Amino acid sequence: MKEIEFLARGVFSDGVGVLVCRNRKKGNCYLPGGHIEWNESAPAALAREMQEETGLACRVGRFLGAVEHTFRYKGRRTCEINLVFEMRMRGRRAGRPVPSREPKLEFFWWPLTRLDEIALQPSPLRRRLAGWLRNHGAVPWASTYPP
C-alpha cells in the first residue's frame, strides 16, 4: 500500500542564518527533524529526533507552516508532508556548532538569503522560510505538486 510520510521539521534561526542538516552520503540538505511515529505529536517527534540526532534537548515553538512534497527516490515516487516549527536548542545559541550523533548527518549554519545555493529540500522552503519566520502575512502552505 502506498503511504504518505509525515515529518516534523525544526527551524533554529537568529533571523539571519538557519540550522541545516545534510546527509553526508546523499548530499541532500533539509531542515533538522524526521518522521512522526504512530501516536506521537509533531512537536514530540521533533524533540525526539533532535535528541537522537544531536544529543541535545530542544524546545519546540510555534507552527510556521507545512509543505507537501513529492519526489523520486530509487525509481519510486515518495510523498511526504513536512510540518515546520520554530525550535530552540537548550544550551546552544544560534550560530554555534551543533553536534551530530549519526555519522551520516552533519549540521551547519547557512544564511536564510542563500538557501538556493545548497538546494534546501523541499524547494518551496527556500522562498518561504524567511517570510514564515517574520510572519508578515506569509501563507503557511507550499507544495511541489503540479497545480
Index terms:
globular, Nucleoside Triphosphate Pyrophosphohydrolase, alpha/beta, 147 residues, 40% strand, 2 helices
Brief write-up:
The chain has 147 residues and is of the alpha/beta class. The chain has helices at residues 42-54, 124-134, and strands spanning 5-11, 17-23, 29-30, 33-35, 58-73, 76-89, 105-111, 141-143.
Give an overview in words:
With 147 residues, this protein is α/β, with parallel strands linked by helices. It has one domain: Nucleoside Triphosphate Pyrophosphohydrolase (Alpha-Beta Complex). It is 16% helix and 40% strand. The protein has 2 helices and 8 strands; from the N terminus they run ββββαβββαβ. The chain has a 5-stranded mixed β-sheet with strand order 4-1-6-5-8, with helices on both faces. Strands 3-2-7 form a 3-stranded antiparallel β-sheet, with no helix packed on it.
Across the major sheet, the strand order is 4-1-6-5-8
End-to-end distance, in Å?
A: 25 Å
Low-confidence stretches: none
Helix content range: 10-25%
**How would you name the CATH homologous superfamily?**
Nucleoside Triphosphate Pyrophosphohydrolase
Q: Largest sheet at a glance?
A: 5 strands, mixed
**Which oligomeric form is depicted?**
single chain
Total helical elements? 2
Please name the CATH architecture. Alpha-Beta Complex
Instruction: Classify the secondary structure makeup into a structural class.
Output: alpha/beta
CATH topology heading: Nucleoside Triphosphate Pyrophosphohydrolase
**Strand element count:** 8
Radius of gyration: 14 Å
Shape: globular
CATH class membership: Alpha Beta
User: Proportion of β residues?
Assistant: 35-45%
Average of pLDDT:
91
Number of domains: 1
Order of helices and strands: EEEEHEEEHE
